[in-house]
Amino acid sequence: MVRKVQRNEPCPCGSGKKYKRCCSLKARELTSSRANRREGIQKSLGWVTRAYPEQVDHWVDENWLSEISKDQRAGISNADPRIRSVHDINLLEFLVAEGSFSDMEGENRPLQLILEADLGLNKEQLDYLKQLPEQALRLYQVTACIPGTSYSLSKYPDSDSKAVAIEDGTTSRMFDVGDIVGLRLLQIEGAWETSGAIYHIPEEYAVDLVKQLQDGKAEEYSKTLADYWLKLVAAHA
Fold this sequence. Notes:
Layout: H1 23-51, H2 53-64, H3 70-77, H4 81-98, H5 110-116, H6 123-131, E1 138-146, E2 150-155, E3 164-167, E4 180-183, E5 185-188, E6 191-194, E7 199-201, H7 203-215, H8 221-235
Antiparallel strand pairs: 1-2, 1-4, 2-3, 4-7, 5-6
């Protein structure tokens, strides 16, 4: 078991400062900034569903669930509330990152509508939102994890790719080493963090998913991954 560094002890980074004045302080600042950014996303997603309910419902039916049968849709609707919560986050983030309202004239991109609306978002929150369409949804494997602190990811199935370390006390509690997950990684001030959407893929299905991703078009990677995850949710609800 790793011993927890006490506040008044020398910081393990070697700066010569006390831990509470060095890395502990930086960790608190990082947590505060991340909470601010995620609050901006939550506010934005909530606004879209309230401002454009008919357009959102149409997009869900014609795009998000386009490859999902009637029976599979019923399975998703009846899923455990925790899974439904993850589903709703994934759905709305995908809509904002990559979606558009086909039944709407003029500007029909949810992200642009958010950026143009007066939602009281600060610069950090706006900059974070603008990254969503720039960072694609991709498949990763968890290579290390300290619950409540941090975890590391490598691209899957490329196990030789350089691991990305992410400090996140919340998300790290949701992963185990070896987990295969679809994530959208955003970079803030030189550090990586997840956008909030999480697509867990059981190991026994990973090979089949990878084949579909490799056989499909590059521009359809995100949709293929999301569709596969939706079908797993429906089948195991």
